Amino acid sequence: MEKVGLMSKQLRITLVKSLIGVTEKHRRVVTGLGLRHTNHSVERLDTPEIRGMVNKVPYLLRWEELS
Length: 67
Known about the structure:
This protein has a single domain (10-66), classed as CATH 3.30.1390.20. Helix content is 28%, strand content 25%. It has two helices and three strands; from the N terminus they run βαβαβ. The protein has helices at residues 24-33, 48-56; strands spanning 10-15, 41-45, 61-66.
C-alpha cells in the first residue's frame, strides 16, 4: 500500500448539475463523494479510488487539483 503524506494532492470537487433524471448508480457515486446539492463543493485526497468515482460522472462535476 502507498502511504499518504501530509503534503499529498487534493481535489476540490463541485456538483454542477442536478441529479434529476440521473441513474441510481450515478446518484450513489455522487453521494459517495460527499456531495449533497448543486454547487456543493468538497475536498478529497487525490487517490485512484476518488479519481475513478469522478471519471464515472464527469458530466455532473467540475474538479480542480489543489496542492
